[in-house]
Mannosyltransferase
Amino acid sequence: MMEILRRRRRRRLSQPEPQIGDSESDLGRRIVPDEDIRREYVDRILSDERWVWKVCLLARLLNAMLVRTYFNPDEHWQSLEVAHRMVFGYGHLTWEWDRGIRSYVHPLIFAALYKVLAITGLDTPWFMARSPRLLQAVFAAACDVYLFKLTTRIFGSRSAFWALFAQMINWFTFFCMTRTLSNSLETTLTIAALFYWPKGKDLKLRYCSRWVSSRQLALMIAAFSCALRPTNAVIWLYVGVVHLFQTPSKFRFLLAEVLPIGLVSLTLTALIDRWMYGYWTLVPLNFLKFNFLSSGGDFYGTHPWHWYFSQGFPVMVFSFLPLTVYGIWISKRWYYAGLIGWVLGVYSLLGHKEFRFVLPVLPLAMMFAGYALHSLEDRRTKPEENDPVAEDSFDSSSSSEAGVSRKQAASANFQTATKFWWILMFVFSTNMPAALYTSVIHQRGGEAVMEYLAKEASHNRVDSVLFLMPCHSTPFYSSLHKNISMRFLDCSPSDQADYIDEADRFKIQPTEFLSTMFSVQNLQLPSHIVVYDSVDQKILPFLKEHSYRLERRFFHAHFPVDRELQANVLLYTLCGDARSSTVLL
């Protein structure tokens, strides 16, 4: 590396200083050698995997610290809330756990983290809120590294450098990968398994150790990913069927690898769920029956069949979309492009659609974008090495023609480099503002109010909390970390045709709903009420009548999130003598 720097310094010293009136070709002739040195320096760094790990880990840890917004309830309610209940003995289990359609495999990872925090006495509000995302940042960094390795194997290290660049600044990756969603870990496992999976000329089995081949290791990782999210089997159905047609050892592949690894994974998952549920249940089967066979997910809304192609995935890829399409076209790697299309197509069959469902194939789109960037970067014009005009230095006219040829090449290089940097500036300036806005600002009120309540509860200034918001709009006990009474508006699905859940009943008639709750149901007043400012005016008479005052206002969003603008989250506190008479809800 020092030798590269010395060569770069000698090259600079040997070049004349730029003069007033220098043409683009003169500048281009000076720029290109430095560019070669710079690329060689970067390639030398990228050849050391430890440097890649350090860069990715540092970037994702910073990413995790910047994420302060609320995205999807599953980030808290299907992982951290369950893990908190497992370790500390209190926490809310949603209706999915009553029906056995969620596995405890994913929450166990964060339960182990919480156990360490409890043993070391670090289970403070700050660590409880930040440490899960910091742990997820390690998994996200692993995804980045394996994407780099996968792209290196397919396209080479320079394309891998640009694929890593695209992965790092893509707005949705930045926004989602450090969140404690099972989809985020599923993405890491998918990319790692694809790296170890034999493909093309690499069908001959490679061995990662004395006993385990790369294909077996890929199957183990894929099995773990399917245990986290059974729908990950959609990816491995495509990969497995294609490989079955290509591999000469079909029976060995099916009977000696897929079948035993699948059975072991299924058995371990069933044992874990038997231990946690207290009874035997096959979660993958329950999950697939609810989401695929009964359309249970439609309860949370539906989208048109083309949504992933026309809106969902293009929004995730964002300004990298032209580069991704161009990379697919010039690379002709239809296997990985087909995998993206297969996943989007299969998920399009479902009525309920979400961005995060197709997150595992987003890094593949960034891989193609990286290849496109490399191809654009490499478009430099060079004089013919064996051009007799360029080599003949005895004839003055020939020498003049050679100089013109070099000037034309240098000018073309300068223009190509300029265009390339404009492309980089475009994708950077479109993705990073979106990434920071959605991660730091947009929908931050739900997490901010829980962070405040956690601090207040640690000083015994919170007795009970009522959330008059759409269900699961905020984190819960996993963030508060205090065993006090808390209640939210229930929105569990029902088999009754005309059933209206609590959240909808409150939205339709908020005042009447509260009167029924505290008069007919005879519930005691909570010490704190959390509500969006879009409805607080409707319940203001109730709040004034029962001596509630506005304690804090937390910014939430600049524009409507669902059907109406929820600009702020408001925290009301029961004051005066009424506070002393409150009991648990």
User: Anything to note?
Assistant: Residues 396-441 form the longest helix (46 residues). Residues 445-574 form one domain.
